[in-house]
Each structure stands twice: as structure tokens, then as C-alpha cells.
Amino acid sequence: MRDAASTTAGKTTSTPAHPISTTKRKAVASTPRKTSAPTSTQKKPARLAPVKRSLRPSSAQLASAPSASAPPAGHLVILPPADVLTTLRAQRERVTVTMLDPWYNKGIGGERPDYHDWLAEVVAEAARFSDHVFVWGFPEIVAHQIGRIPPTHTLAAWLTWYFKNCPSVIRGWRSAQNACLHLAHRDARLHPEHFLNEAQREKQRQGKLRYLPGPPSVIEAALIIGFVGRREQQGHPSQKPEKALEPLIEMTTVPGDTVLDPMCGSGTTGAVCQRLGRHAILCDMDEKYVQMTERRLGVKRSQG
Ligand SMILES: C[S@@+](CC[C@H](N)C(=O)[O-])C[C@H]1O[C@@H](n2cnc3c(N)ncnc32)[C@H](O)[C@@H]1O
């Protein structure tokens, strides 16, 4: 397993200048940027005494960062409804990230007997053109993928989304976590510099930051349920909070990179990309969720 911070010294991956300008992806909406994230070209030095840090910098911190440059507006593409394998097999150009958040083979979405084989095939297709692949699910479900990681990628991290406010009880234990496997290509770039606090940034500016501390692999974000997350709620039965996806996108992309989410549900990946100035390609097999994503992002689907 590769340590997250240790991979930052890896080679920079090439991202096409306009990574979603394929003929298939031609209907593109330019969206306004609401916050900015810095780009950094500084290389990772060794060691530094641990410094207290927040999960991600505030917009004030980002604005004051010397390396901060205005990211380009994120281009969002919503595809007509399609099965995930159809979407992945049609993808011709490299993307920085593919976010895989399927149903979890119990509860909503039902069970399929071939689930583990199916998911392994989905992951393999995504790995073909993605620097990073995230695979969400219940821990006992994604655990089956650990031994089936495509040879081009390694397990960069087992991430946990921790929430305290789920009412459902499983055998006496109240459900409080989801897992997410972070698979990274050997040349993939990580961006722990996006998580520096102001004191660390200042040290970095002065050339005194001796290593880049990474964010925690446990992400705490309340489940969107009842009155929690009212402003985000779209009516999708399994909608993730933006706060759960944001660190993943910050860690693996810079403004202008492309994130593909072929099972986008309510479009949470798109909402985060829209805010952070990343490009996104979104699809779901279900017409009503494609419509939900269109409404949420204010973008019409491409005509295929
Ligand atoms: C867990 S939800 C995704 C939630 C999403 N991340 C959000 O925050 O709204 C899973 C989604 O995957 C879609 N899905 C499941 N199987 C699919 C398949 N074979 N092809 C395409 N979409 C699929 C479902 O319609 C559902 O919207």
C-alpha cells in the first residue's frame, strides 16, 4: 500500500488542455466558479514537526495563498441515461478521477448475485483511462475488491466516511460509516498542499515547510437526512454530502482537471466540481436522476 503523502513526488500526469472536448462530449456548459483552490508547483521536502490543521483551507486562506490562481470555470457535461459500463467503454480520453458510487448490494438498489465480479469489471474499465479511481460502498462490500485491483493501480488509501446521525441499526450497532477505496495509477499526482492551513502556507512560502502533511483518511460529514443538509437535499435516496466528496477531489485534482462520475445520482460530484472549477462528466442509468442532476447544476444534458 502506498502512503498518500509519499506519492506527491511522483511524476506529473498529463491532462489534455481541454479534456472533455471529444465529439461525444460536445454539449458543454460553462459554469461560474464560486471558490478557488490554489495550484502549487512546490516539491515535497522531507519531515516537519506535526502542525495542527483543518481538513481544507478556508476561502480566505486560499485567496491569500501566493500560488493561488483563478481556476478556469468548470465545464460540466451531463450525458443521457446509460449503464455505467456503456459510459466507461465509450470514454476515449484520460480523466484525472473516476468516482464510482454504485448501489451497495443491499437495501436500496437491491442485490445482484454477481455484484463483486460486476464491480471489479467496472473498476477495471475505469482504471483504463483514470489516474485515480474512487470506489464507494459498505466496508464489507468494497473489501472484496482489495484483491482485484487492476495491475496499473495500487491502493492509495482506504478512506472512511464517518457520520453519527444515521437512524438505522445493524445487529445492535448503529450504522455510522461508508468506505471508499482510493486506487491510484503509479504516475498519479496527489495534492496534499490543498489542505495546508495558513501557518503551513506561510512556511511553504518561506521554503521552511519540510514535508506536506496530508488530510485524515477518515472524513466526518453528517448524513443528509431529515433537517440535516436541507439546502443540499435533492430527494435522492442515497445522496452523499458534498463535504464527503470534496476532500477526494481536492486531494486528486487541480482546477481544470476532469472528474467522471458514471453513476452520479443527484449530481453531488458535479456540484463539488462546479464549485471548485473542475470539469465533470456525469451520467446515471436512471432518467429521473439525470433530470435531478440537470436541475441541481443548472445544466442540460448533451444530446449524445
Ligand atoms: C449511491 S447512488 C449515487 C449517489 C451520488 N453519489 C449522490 O451523491 O447523489 C448510486 C447511483 O448509481 C446509479 N446506478 C446504479 N447502477 C447503475 C448502473 N449499472 N449504471 C449506471 N448507473 C447506475 C443509481 O441509479 C444511483 O443513482
From TrEMBL:
EC top class, as a word: transferase
Gene3D superfamilies: Vaccinia Virus protein VP39
BP-aspect Gene Ontology terms: methylation
DNA methylase N-4/N-6 domain location: 231-294
Pfam families: N6_N4_Mtase
Biased composition, class Low complexity, residue ranges: 1-17, 56-71
One MF annotation (Gene Ontology) recorded for this entry: DNA binding
Name of the protein in its database record: Methyltransferase
